[in-house]
Predict the 3D structure of the following.
Amino acid sequence: MDTRELVIEVRDLVYTHLRDTPFAVQALKGVDMEVWRGEAVAVLGPTGSGKSTLVQHLNGLLRPQHGRVRVLDYDLSDPNVDVRALRRRVGLVFQFPEAQLFERYVGDDVAFGPRQLGLSREEVRARVREAMEAVGLDFEGFKDRLTFTLSGGEQRRVALAGVLALRPEILILDEPLAGLDPAGRRRLIALLRRLKGERGLTLVLVSHDVDDVVLLADRCFVVADGRTVMAGTPRELFSHPPATLAEFGLRPPSIMTTMHALADRGIPVRRHCLTVDEAADELARALEGG
Amino acid sequence: MESLELRRHVTIGQYVPTGSPLHRMDPRFKLVAFVALVVAVTFTGSYLGNVALLALMGGLILLSRVPARYVLGGLRPALPVLLLLAALQVLLYTPEFTGGEGCVTLFRAWFVHSTTCSVKLAIVSAARFVELLVLTSLLTLTTTTTGLAHGVEHLFAPLQRRFGFPAHELALTLTITLRFVPTFAEELERLIKAQVSRGADMGGASWWRALRRARALLPIMVPLLLGALRRAEMLVLAMEARGYVGGRGRTRLVELRSTPHDAVALLLALLAAAAILTVPWPW
């Protein structure tokens, strides 16, 4: 086999919320997933498909009821596994993380995690600085700003910094781009790419928006109705006909829909363009050729 | 293994439709029956009376067809407080305080004074707590919040006509409160998970370091309160935007209609309450 290191392995994971109550819901019915160090993996699927339940297993917030979850060297089925140590190495950023901010000053909020680790003042300061710069917030300019006067996008970056300050090896983000304006989305996408490229962070992104995913992910897992139904690179995934994708509550990226429409009208372009840039090149080629 | 599923323990404010006779009962009648039984629980201080009440609660749970384990699940979080309370009552309540004659001292040293009366008080209080919890849980488990609100409004309507008592507003407040209990639990769970994910140590500090424990709750309480205020504001805006006007002249989609069954059920509840209150329980 190849030399890459397998950092997350999920096998036949089953999970029922509120088990043994009248509100029991089987969220996961058999999910498989693996993630290698340094790659960006997206978990795609419609609302209610079990994506969030799946990722909450990856840092030990939920424990597998059936099946196996192994993250780094931790086996989550083992009741004695040190989840606190695991959570330091696997950062999980919830959906709308700005709702979890609580400190008056930005710097204090980012420092929450490192302080819990019992680090020295200097070390905490260094980590806060590093995390804030990583999310594009100037340390000197922002550390003493009032948390709740920041804009939504800035608050989200503060929350992200709060997790990065733990220096995780794996970063899991649940719908990181939800509710951001286009500029905020672009900025966050660039930021995540930089984290992966410069720091070698392994990324797991949960999303229901394919347009975001194709810009970020090396590989995708499609979860529908609690099961892994497709896996592959975005290009492999979206080579499936739109009807097949629709079966699992997915649609092709918007630009690909446009290219399908153009090709259907007899314009000689390749259909499977994932990004706008790729489509632009393809169109230029077609126009020059024609 | 820790479990972060908080909603598991929140049974008040949930509605579990099973279509049982208790579910079908007219909320107005159900509320009156509920009050009668609460009165019976409140004024029954004997062992046997509480045994009878516990049996009655068991019967009601069976009748509701809601799994007993679920109804009683709401007890779990209250258990430590109950035990502490019982211990204090047993150890500290002197005969002068518990009243009643024929108290036999079981143990006495320094300020600790246990008697048969204080033991009885502790056991009866615990039983009453369980009974009240079952009653309130059953009321919300078998009644939709709108049903409850309409019932309350109807029952207070005479007061409104006579004295201008704000019956509708009370009913609305009640609906909103009950409606948001599970939402809060959900949000609390989410916040705990989020803070734990960034290094928070929940329940890690020993219980005698109360200050440290209280401080550990800040990362949860602050966002929870902020969220509650934000949600309240949104609710007000949404109601204003739809031109909500409460009270007089407001019609309903579903009108409450009572049947003879409701009257019979209420009568049975009143009889049971009266019986438990009037029987001279020997001990």
Q: What stands out?
A: Chain B has eleven helices and two strands. Residues 2-278 of chain B form one domain. The longest strand of chain B covers residues 105-109. The two ends of chain B are 43 Å apart (CA to CA).
